[in-house]
# Entry
Amino acid sequence: MPLLDQPLELTPGAAVLERARGGDIAAFRELLRGHQARVFSIALRLTGRRADAEELAQDVFLKLHAVLADIESHAHLRHWLLRTVTHRCIDRLRSQARRPQLVPLAALAEADTAAPESAGDPLMGARLRQLLLQLAPDPRAVVLLRFQEDLDPAEIALLLGMSVNTVKSHLRRSLHWLRAQLPGDGNGS
Amino acid sequence: MDLERQLRDSLAARDPGAEFESAVLARLPERGAAPARRDRRRWPMALAATVLAAAFGLHWYGVQQRSASAHRQLLLALQITSYELDQVQQKLVSNGTQED
# Structure
């Protein structure tokens, strides 16, 4: 049915959002279920630690509950969640970077964050996720938003407060570096 | 090798598990009550109040200025009147002296 011919009713997603804004806890739970995998995965793959990711993702949803009245649509909700979790994780990574830590090996071991139903070569997937954790926070976030969330560079630029050219540059350099690290590409480790 | 496809495959979103949902819900400040919608008229009302206060201030300043000006004019008029009366008095005194 063409959009203009449809009755003026709220879509299911919009109706859930509206109910959640009205204080309906079941509707908020539905929003939580719909977005928790996305938010948690971003946090897990940015921080590399499950405990940090759970804490950050929970904080994001608590913040969401506090600002639900300002969320105007489902698209706004998704944008808000991605922006908030990404910025919080980057802030966390930067603050950790200022304090010397003995982390990487433990983090890499812990951060094999594949979805159980992931497609493709599991070994290659695990290697890519480990390599991702070696990127600096900004390019790591760019790669995650591009390939986990399938956002285009303009959307990523808007989320991260960067220029589109910076996003493209992070993507180009990160992909080049990742290729160089993988076996079979001449420079692989 | 299609690196981009492999990245997409390996970065599929992963569910945090059932405990995550209950942990979030347990941490909500007040179960079942989302915070009240913020009053979107707050800023326009603050702006209107500021404009009103500024207009009142300007009006009050004008009144004060006009009052001060009237006060100065009154003082000047009194000074002139006093001077004129003084002149008249001096003439009267001088005429009285001549008649004596």
